[in-house]
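task queued by scheduler; priority normal; single chain, no ligands, no partner chains; default sampling; output format set to structure tokens
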Amino acid sequence: MTSEETSARSAPKGMRLGDRFCKDVAFTEGSIRQFASFVGDSNPFGRIIASGTQTFSMMLAAVPDYLAAWHPNVGLEASVKLLRPIRAGDSARIEWQVTDIADTPKLKGWIVTVSGRLLRSDGVVALTATSKSLVYWPKSHPDLAR
């Protein structure tokens, strides 16, 4: 097997363990109220904070943006730990890192695991998350040529 074939099997071309991607986001009072209305969150805390579903949704939205270079792909699973609130007016940075790439012949692709966090502008980590996606092999993959 050539080194090119080994590389084609081990990871999507151009993706490496440790790759990082990020996105800056803002949480306005209007966007928090609108999201809460859509999902039926009555915000029982007395002050305007973003729901966990909103912050997690924004985190997850960054993953397919990153994976768009390796399409087709599909999300498989995700988990979150909500650590601190996000208040109206907060800005934050979504940070993700590729932590595992598993060649999965049964699914004809790679399962890509990313771990991330949402970091408020004051330096506090508001949530951490993990996501797994399936990135399908390209038509040129050695196992599809058989």
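post-processing summary
- The longest strand covers residues 91-104.
- The first helix runs from residue 3 to 10.
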